[in-house]
Design brief:
The complex is a heterodimer of chains A (356) and B (169).
Chain A: H1 3-6, H2 27-47, H3 59-89, H4 95-130, H5 138-147, H6 149-174, H7 180-195, H8 208-236, H9 240-274, H10 281-287, H11 289-320, H12 327-348
Helix pairs in contact in A: 2-3, 2-12, 3-4, 3-7, 3-8, 3-9, 3-12, 4-6, 5-6, 6-7, 7-8, 8-9, 8-12, 9-10, 9-11, 10-11, 11-12
Chain B: H1 18-41, H2 46-67, H3 76-98, H4 115-134, H5 139-165
Helix pairs in contact in B: 1-2, 1-4, 3-4, 3-5
The chains are: A mainly alpha (356), B mainly alpha (169).
Amino acid sequence: MNQRLATAVSPPTATPDTATAPAPRYVLLIVLTGGAIAGALIGLAITVTAAGGAVTSGPLVAAGFALSRSVLDTQAVITVGMSFLPTFLGRDRRAATMLPLASARLIGLVSAAVWLIAALVSMVLEVVDINVGQPFTLAAIGQYVRGAGAGQAHVVVACGAFVYLVIAVFSRYRGTDVPAEMRIAVAVFTLIPLSTAGHAAFGAQSLRNLALVSIELHVLSAVSWTGGLVAVMLLLGLHRGLLATALPRFSRLATVCVFLTGLTGLFNGWYELWSTPGIHWYTAVFTTRYGLVLIGKVLCVVTAGLLGGYTRLRLLPRIIERRPTAVLTWATVEIGVLAVAFGLAAVLIRAPVVTG
Amino acid sequence: MAATAPPRLPALDIDLPRSAVVAATAFVLAGALRLAAGAEQLGLSSGFAILFFLVAIAQIGFGVLLGVGMRQAMSMIAATAAMVMTLILVGLWLVATTATVPIYPLMNGPYPVDVIDLATALLEVTSVVALCRSLPQPARRRVGWTLIGLVVAAWLVWVGIVATVGLTD
């Protein structure tokens, strides 16, 4: 654990702050969820008509799965972001920080609950999708959980979200805070299983392990970047003092995450196309539905990266000086673009590489 | 103008030793995986499902209490009991993966090494080491050596059993 995380468990230095904390910008949650659902629908529209495409048990199940995965991903983003917030504030424990931190605990609690439900719904839809034409039974779920890696992954995600929920409820009703590291560890740990249950688990043997590590890093960095941005802007965006404290810390994390997300995303997309037999990867980018969704996702990440770069290079110095900026507007656009990328990713994890 | 007292803070971060935070985190994560293992056992073996659920509740509960710095969870007796119970669980898993255990659902050989089980065992060992490190001296040394003695004794007993009756009988 690094020194920055350690500050979250240090005794707080209480200093009075007469400034009242502004209300959270809940519209950002709507932008995040709406963007992810829009991205999933765009991705579905591209892949659903492909021959032998993503649809195996009817468009309703395919759409339901993509939407539930979008919701699952956005809730993971929110939960991870809310877990990171105390580390962005560091030792700063003015009275004004108490309301954002309490709000972060409450939002984290709700998002963990939705994360848990979305994981279970996603698992049920996968079972329906696999057992096409067969009646849906609890035994089928049991078989799926015991027999498929993705089934096990869904159960671990549900259990991880449940544990986070327990921690969040306990800390809320007891009135004390559990260490930020603990919440970050549980939230991040819960992200990992499903990321390794997609295409990367079934690709070419030679680079499979590298692809698995790459997809894990991709998910961790993308979720940390988006989640951190949502948490900072949602709860601190209208408070110049707290934003000047938290944004530089978040910005350092985000810079690493932007490059990591881009590089690992490019590698994962290339690997999936390269490991598909019968087609050259460079032609598959433009001739397959998978390739088109991939291009859309790359454009989203590049756009969000440029927006993040503008915030870091142009707006951050003014924010540190506590001068007025349009950072919330820029961040809202960045979150919306990233949310669309998450929606596209929810489709991409199951979309096969087929031409036409 | 008289200085005003700082307002009472409604929620505070806790000044826990880092090893206690690591132990608490490892306990709750191991509990989450035990919960997943229990869910897998549903419809296969109700006895093991219940056992895994009970262990999961104990691990998550202890981890959360340790994480919020509850005195009772950090007492010597509770910490030692948690460490011994955890080591017993790891020991049982090691035995089950190296030999046929009659009460296990799989009767035709050692229990397969599953990723979830392996991760759980690693987290449990981490939690024991971290919890032991969080104890104050000289109790840490005393408890640490006692646990090492127990592990060595259990291993010798197991070697004796294997040498006498064979690995799979």
